[in-house]
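Hi both,

Apologies for the delay on this - the queue was longer than expected. I finally got the zinc ion-bound model through. Below you'll find the protein sequence and the ligand SMILES exactly as submitted, and right after that the structure tokens for the full complex including the ligand.
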Amino acid sequence: MLCNVCQAPLGAPLYESRGKLSLTSLCELRPGRTRVWCCDRCGHLQGEPLPDTAQYYASDYRILLDHDDEDQIYDTERTADGGERIVYRTQHQLRLLLERLPLPEGARLLDYGCAKAAMPRLLAAERPDLQLHLFDVSEMYRSHWDRLLPRERQAVNEAPAGWHGSFDAVISFFALEHIPAPIASVAHVAALLKAGGSFYGVVPCTVGNPADFIVADHVNHFTTASLHRLLADAGFGAICIEPDVHRGALVFRAVKAGVAALGPEPSVVRPQAQALARFWSELSDRIAAAEHAAGDVPVAIYGSGVYGAHIAASLAHPERLRCFLDRNPFQQGKALFERPVLAPEQLPDDVTQLYVGLNPSIARQALSDQPWLARSRARPFFLDGGAP
Ligand SMILES: [Zn+2]
């Protein structure tokens, strides 16, 4: 196996999951273990491409498709009247984008790997002057796209010849991690940009969001070192990668001009990846111990994303699982592993064990001062291994 970023040969995998099944970022189980390799030359982490990558993205990868506005929770913020408001991921992305990417009046902009075009929809409302265009590798988003832009501004798989060298900016949100050959895709982006045009995007940061490390469809786990290398090798200059403005993600921008400065040191990556491998290996033991200690009681899982799905898939006694809890109204009413996803306030009275399936870096804060939890008999189990 060769590195997806620098083409160096990779040795043995750094991580291999224990179970015979792996999870995707959409919480589906797929046959096969998850394995992760580390490239010491460029600091890239990567898994194996799905055996059916093209088919998977053409028809199976149905992300947030139920509704134009369906979204993931990024954070909550206090409102003026002392209440709490959900900040959705695309809203946070839009704030950062508008602060960081100067877009002249009437700029030509392409969203590369746009899925249902949630970002262009928000951008169009904010900046109606922009000439927005859409690109992805699936036809299944067309109904969402058609409600936003005419067909000549849309492309699937291949960009029209007239688009080459034409864009002031290409944006890309959570797409590059899915692409088995990111060198070719970033070269494609560079070809689509005008000289001096900007490439701006967001990819998961596996160190800030450990779930990225184990999901089967994220073939790339970028680090600041490997992302810098990928952009520099494609001819981008003025590369800026911010690891701390979008939790669990790297926000990058680069310009099609000049020569890149020297990138971050890749040698820090292997020990960080080893710590992640240890986290996931030990988590199986901790979940098993918690399950044993709780005994034969009804349990629930807080969070219906990858962390919650991982817990559910790890339970030795899944028959004890009553429900998932999720404060995202778009998740409530759905089912995961044939269990209902409920609002937290609907936690059944008889549940005494609550597994907290959230990013460990925010889990404790997210569950602090929750009246429904204080009222319940449920004892929380946190993935970080600390006391409840
Ligand atoms: Zn490499």
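Main takeaway for now: The mean pLDDT is 93.

I'll put the files on the shared drive as well.

H.
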